[in-house]
Amino acid sequence: MTVSKSVWKVLEPRNMELGPREGNKPHTHWRYAKDEEGIVWLVLDRSGESTNTLSEAVMSELNTVLAEVQGLGAKGLVIRAAKEGGFVAGADIRDFRGVTDAGEVEARMRRAHEIVDRLADLPMPTVAVIHGHCLGGGLELALACKHRIAVAGASFGFPEILLGLHPGLGGTFRLPALIDPIEAMTMMLTGRTVHTKKAKALGLVDAVVEERHVKNAVRAAVAGQTKPSRPGLKGTVLGLGAARRMAARRMRAEAEKKAPKKHYPAPHRLVDLWEEHGGDTRAMKKAEIRSFSELLVGETAQNLMRVFFLREGLKRLGKGESGVRRVHVIGAGTMGGDIAAWCAARGMTVSLTDLDPKAIAGAVGRAAAFYDKRLHSSLDRRDALDRLMPDFEGDGIARADLVIEAVAEKAEVKRKVFEAITPRMKKDAILATNTSSIPLETLREGLPFPDRFLGLHFFNPVTRMELVEVVAHDQASEKALARAHAFCGDISRLPAPVKSAPGFLVNRALTPYLVEAFTMFDEGVPKETIDEAAKDFGMPMGPIELADRVGLDICLEVARMLKERLDDPMSEVPDWLVKKVEAGDTGRKAGRGLYAYDEKGKLKSDEVKVAKGEEAPRADAEMADRLVLPMLNTLVRCLREGVVADEETVDGAMIFATGFAPFRGGPLHYARKRGVEEVVVTLRQLEEKHGARFAPDAGWDMLKG
């Protein structure tokens, strides 16, 4: 044991090169020391936080430290982070939440710029050594250094656009000056991260090294032996105003498709900045600060910051030890196969079984295609496929810590599966159903261990939708539920605790939204107009297209079940929907539903033309209210009935499971902003015009307080 400890003592410094271990001058968040070659190693380790972010206190202390470093006669300066997770995750947005004065933000941003400029103006070579994530303000800090060295596996990005902002600490002018301006603008406009291989190809970093070579790479950079990154704007045709204007027009058109200006102003403001001031650093800096400050106090950014904190709140529910290492998935259809693929990608050992061997083969093929797109190294792709094991006999049941059932949405089918597998399960294993709507009280009948039975309701597509409803019933143990929450955290998913009830939370609220769309279609409103009304409100897609994606058969099944089991007033299911399902026109998966689709599942071109045709009547606000307010009414009912515990869980669940207009901050937050009394009055008006299904729920009184 003593030998083992001594070995680790010897190897410990190699885990992460942070400069001299002796002679450090510590501050609260930063520490620094000069090594034997006269290079100062400046290390960020934010106190009291698991992740490095740039708070005002961190930036103020950096200013002090840089002044001290200037007096040391150093040959070079290295900036590193001590947190294992990464370099810097960006600015601490807690500093800006709820701020309403753009002038105050502008003053704070000017001070922050002065500090970053001080780093950029140091006369010595400066090197940012980056491991893990380097995002937002962290990347802007790195861009202020003369050299950037990436440790293999690092990732870089500007996610500000996802918060309704654009870079505000120099990124808008330093990145386009460093790399190809179109690539720079693409990074900032999309918020996508780039990994080490692409970062090197772009010229964002000068070198990519393994951790054990960091010290030598730093020496080379300080000694001037590292080739500088490729030039960006300077000397290119995009340095000319006319060329920028042409490129800007294309960028605006692309931005409008995904982020309409009336809902998401930040991408359009960023394009304006670049078009107007690209190539003029001083003008760009001044305009960047002003634009960032105005955006930050705007409703979109404040609501998107709320969404960020909703995500953080749900992530906290996924903390803890799940004890799940092996997962067995029953059902290799779209949902089951994709659940299995995702779990394997996140490090779980997964066995996948189905009565149809072809279904398993198809699921593995889809998984391989997904890994090719999303996993960044051939080793990661190979390992994920190795962890995903076809299991034709169901042998994985006996070894699994968690068994997930994802077969047909019929109670009798699911109960037959449970009857066959429960005798083969481990004594402490959890049995989870992926049912989207069936109450667990119905499914638990005859189970020998109802305390270890619960719901894990994933949403389609599994690889993109972050939320998982963790469904409890009155016989489920707290231990099993805690493990299920932690399992969601293990696979990078957001657990939303809900109680067993028909449709749970999300599908119960989504169904009246979809059924009202069917009713409007039945009344003769064109499907394109219905979808346009929802998209004008801010939904990522309209309810008709969404129904096709979910599957008209599933919509029909859920609507019938909810109508049968609940007292919620709802329109009758239209006869044409029943006939379409009976004919096999079940939506995108069948190639035809309410729209027609090509072999890749995309809307056929003639459908797109019809949807954009000038003859189609224009959507209006009443159409949007008819669609959205029944959803809000149902969410309030779920809150009143105790299906879900609080408004934050409601809002987070609907955003991360359905894509509910993120810039509105969540459906109940939207209701509060609009005015609860106004929503109730509008519901009563709709009730008078269209029927009892719009009657305001008694739960609205709870929100008035």
Question: Overview of this structure, please?
Answer:
There is one protein chain. With 705 residues, the protein is of the alpha/beta class. The chain has three domains: 2-302, Alpha-Beta Complex (2-enoyl-CoA Hydratase, Chain A, domain 1); 327-500, NAD(P)-binding Rossmann-like Domain (Rossmann fold); 507-704, N-(1-d-carboxylethyl)-l-norvaline Dehydrogenase, domain 2 (Orthogonal Bundle), CATH 1.10.1040. The protein is 49% helix and 12% strand. It contains 29 helices and 19 strands. An eight-stranded mixed β-sheet has the order 14-13-12-15-16-17-18-19, sandwiched between helices. A seven-stranded mixed β-sheet has the order 1-2-3-4-6-8-11, sandwiched between helices. Helix 12 (299-317) crosses helix 26 and helix 19 runs antiparallel to helix 25 (621-641). The longest helix is centred in the C-terminal third of the chain and has 21 residues, at 621-641. The model is unreliable at 1-13 and 608-613 (pLDDT under 50).
Question: SSE layout and pairings?
Answer:
Blueprint: H1 2-15, E1 25-26, E2 30-34, E3 39-44, H2 56-70, E4 76-81, E5 86-88, H3 102-120, E6 126-130, E7 133-135, H4 137-143, E8 147-151, E9 155-157, H5 171-178, H6 181-190, E10 194-195, H7 196-202, E11 207-209, H8 214-222, H9 241-258, H10 266-277, H11 281-296, H12 299-317, E12 326-330, H13 334-345, E13 349-353, H14 357-374, H15 378-387, E14 388-390, E15 402-405, H16 411-421, E16 430-433, H17 440-443, E17 453-458, E18 467-472, H18 478-490, E19 494-499, H19 506-522, H20 527-537, H21 543-550, H22 552-565, H23 575-582, H24 605-611, H25 621-641, H26 647-658, H27 667-674, H28 676-690, H29 700-704
Parallel strand pairs: 3-4, 4-6, 5-7, 6-8, 7-9, 8-11, 12-13, 12-15, 13-14, 15-16, 16-17, 18-19
Antiparallel strand pairs: 1-2, 2-3, 9-10, 17-18
